Amino acid sequence: MDDVGALAREHLEKAAAADHGRSAHLFLHEGPLRQTIIALTAGSALDEHNAPVAGSLQVLVGSVRITAASGDVDIAAGRLQALPQERHGLTALEDAAVLLTAVTET
To answer: How many helices, marked H, and strands, marked E, lie in the chain?
Structure first.
């Protein structure tokens, strides 16, 4: 089993060293289930993208904002938020690492 805390620290370091301020690692891929660590430096963002069939975002470090037409949601470390079922984006309000859990179509 992967150490999620260690992955968060590793990818925060990689994000800090990257020109685009992001780093991600898909560490679980089983059938339609995906789990990914995503790290973003403060102010970095993931552009708007389609929502998976179902998903959640758990903030491990820092804080982020999910942006969507239905309204933005700020999420702090330790919080878990269902992903909106519409196109959405993600912006780091401060250096942040999140655990994305997504169910995709099989």
So the answer is: 1, 9
